[in-house]
Amino acid sequence: MRIDILSLFPEMLTPLEHSIVGKAREKGILDIYYHNFREQAEKSRHVDDEPYGGGQGMLLRAQPIFDTMDQIPKDQARVILLDPAGRTFDQSYAEELSQEKQLIFICGHYEGYDERIKTLVTDEVSLGDYVLTGGELAAMTIIDATVRLIPEVIGKEKSHTDDSFSSGLLEYPQYTRPAQYRGMSVPDVLLSGHHENIRRFRLYESLKKTYERRPDLLETYALTKEEKELLTAIQNDKEMKF
Fold first, then answer.
1. Each residue of 70-88: pLDDT tens digit?
2. Given 100, 163, 171, 227, which residue is catalytic?
3. Has 15 been annotated as catalytic?
4. Does residue 156 register a pLDDT over 60?
């Protein structure tokens, strides 16, 4: 995958040189290019200007963005504009983007964009109902969530398919050695070696966490017969033994 990022502050993007994303770049699975669109600004390197008709704040001018985009090689690219009014980013969106050959991110600053910039984009994306000072943090979040889903980036596919939201439910609690620590014990079923009981225990705990913390997810989740039975037990506070 190729990723291009248009930013006024490319130095903010250095975390992408580390951890999982950095390793993907080292393996040649991923190429990332930074483009400071201030370098293309014709008007005394100014990238912003006052809005026509008056109003608060400054808007990013179209010219620096268009000229920067003209210089980027494109191969069926998805062009993503980071905008609070855009589609809310989630796990299914990350899975969708992970299938693309090229992603281009436009990171804004100031009050907003000249509306004509939006003719360049395929997607307008938001992280949620709040405003950041710039699009760089949002771009890095989307890139990290997307890149880890690309085959070969994470060694074992199961590492991310069991994650919260990948299945539609929150992830079950997990434990590692030692079995006893400061008076806290690992559930006996996880030490039993009984794979079917462990599977049912994890499914039960996943449903329980989702029901208690994110019940909204269950409104659109297609429960299996087994899951319906376990969820009913959870709703009725019925103790389950595994």
1. 999 999 999 999 998 899 9
2. 163
3. no
4. no
